[in-house]
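Every protein is a chain of amino acids, and every chain bends into a shape of its own. The protein below has been through that process, and both of its lines are reproduced in full.
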Amino acid sequence: MIEGLTFTPETIHAKEKKCLKEFYAGDNPYLGDAVAYYQLLFEAYLENNADSRFRRKTEKEQLRIMDKEDKEFREAMRYAFNKGHQTAFNVLLQSTKNNQGYERDFFKNPSSLNNFLYTFEKTITKEVFEENIQRDSIDVLTNFTRRHFNNTFEVIKALGMIFFKKGAGLAFEQVRKQIVGVDYEITGYSKLVHLPINQEFDVTPAFKGQFSLESPDNEEWDIFWDATYPVAYADTLIAKCIIHKISMAEARKMKEKDAITYRTILDSEKAITTINRLENNESFYLVEINFLLFNPNNIPRLLSKAEYEAINKSLLSTVSRKLRVNADHIYAAKS
């Protein structure tokens, strides 16, 4: 419940339904990006845990099953997302003795979304979560998956919780903007990518970024697990992301001097059809992500090859979107 605001259950339901409908009617990539990202990880997990019956099937039959898995996965995660959205609206707006009270100024804090999600995780008991999640589309996915793959129940439940919290995160932002009516108190923005200096931001559907350093044509971010993961992992630094703005005139000049990095970029297969078509007065962005060595005990899971690939793909999409340039202006450095 929010200080100074009172709503009936019927009003809360109507507002939640309206906000969710507006989200789906718009072009916000928040859910679609997350489904695409985790779908890659889920497919990789299934491939590594296929049972003997699946492996004996023909390639055509295996593809049919995997196509069905993809469809059921999308529907299940959307269901979990919607349930999280619905639950968060009730947690934020219902006036009950069990709900935490929020002052209006709480929503101005740039860290309030993360703080809410970490509290939300503790508020939702295992019984409440299972009552919300372990039914409907989640059950359909679980029952279909266990026909051909081993050890999938806990994985599906964990993914369901991630999407449940993503739905809650959307609800928080909609309540902050449309009901409380306040903005975050942002102290400034980075020069290159124009990201908030004192607030974390989405980098991929699993990781958040935090402004670190900048110079006129360079910007560095610190990468952490986002708030859909337990708070115990919130401060585990996973990677450093560095973005370099490079003029085409300078790049061509350095290539002529046989500078290896510039030569490697401009002679690459990608550059032939993208960067090399730019004029000398244009620029491109070199994006590098450097993963750190970390203690396996301090992370919720090890990063698989599939996840590294998903991170790189999602990161480039995020940078392109933040900079408002198309993919032709982005080059991914190999870490």
